[in-house]
Amino acid sequence: MKTTPRVRPAKEPAAQVPHGRSETAKTAHRTGAKVPSKRAAAVTKVLPTNVVAERASEVSWVVRKSPIQGRGVFAARRLRKGERILEYTGERIGHVEAGRRYDDEAMERHHTYLFAVDADTCIDGGKIGNDARYINHGCAPNCEARNVRKRIFIHALRTIDAGEELFYDYAYELEGPITMADVKRYACCCSSELCRGTLLAPKLVAEAIAHEEARKKARAERAAVRKNAAETTAPPKKPSPSIPAKPAKKVAAKKSSAPAQVPQEPTGKRPTTALKAARKRREAP
């Protein structure tokens, strides 16, 4: 039994569209509906979701002068605990480039807008960044930075009243041995009761204190060893000869400037024989 091949019906020719107008525009022209332009559609499609969310929540914070230093970010309304406030944005660069841009040793005062994302990437808020770069450090913070799929978001740790400044703990991480000089270089100015005096992470502060105590102990041990070596190699000291006591100085009698008194003859008494003889010799021619 033969079967005839099935033939598909021919397609109807497409309707001719005037040059420069699409079918959608043609339909909208007939119905009077407004069709967005291609440029507006492209902008809506490319605009990131985080930018749209951030624009909607711009009333959550305000930037003004901070009593701690420079500018700070303050709550413009009451923020709930756990609420996402804003994202830390900026140019994503490597750590080598970040070290080239911001050399801490060459700076008179530490001042950067870097936020480490992982071992390979960090965000430079000074380049195409937003207001999150102005959030100051606090040892008793009311916010925290969360890394969500290599994006940094600032969340409220507790309920924050309107007008309160936002803080989060920078908790700097450094490589190599940490000294007290590093602690002083990254000094903290939050002036809170729990201030640890530095932007470094608490574990690095403890490491710096232990390193300083070990240095002091090693210095004291070396000084003791040098002292013992000097005492063993030094020749024995000879006993010093006894020095005789100095004789007491004689005090000479002071001579009186008054004239010597000539003894006078006692009145009411007869002169003796010697006096008589001396008188006769004086009276003799």
Please provide the count of β strands: 10
- Look at the structure and give the mean pLDDT: 76
Count of discrete alpha- or pi-helical segments spanning 4 or more residues: 7
Order of helices and strands: HHHEEEEHEEEEEEHHH
**Name of the level-1 CATH class of the domain at 45-89 and 130-169:** Mainly Beta
Question: Any overview of this molecule?
Answer:
The protein starts with 22 loop residues before the first helix and ends with a helix. Among the domains are: 45-89 and 130-169, Beta Complex (Beta-clip-like), CATH 2.170.270.10; 92-122, no CATH class; 171-231, no CATH class. The chain has a 3-stranded antiparallel sheet with strand order 3-9-8, with no helix packed on it. It has a 3-stranded antiparallel sheet with strand order 4-6-5. Strands 1-2 form a two-stranded antiparallel ribbon. The longest helix has 32 residues, at 202-233. It is built from 7 helices and 10 strands. By secondary structure, it is an alpha+beta fold.
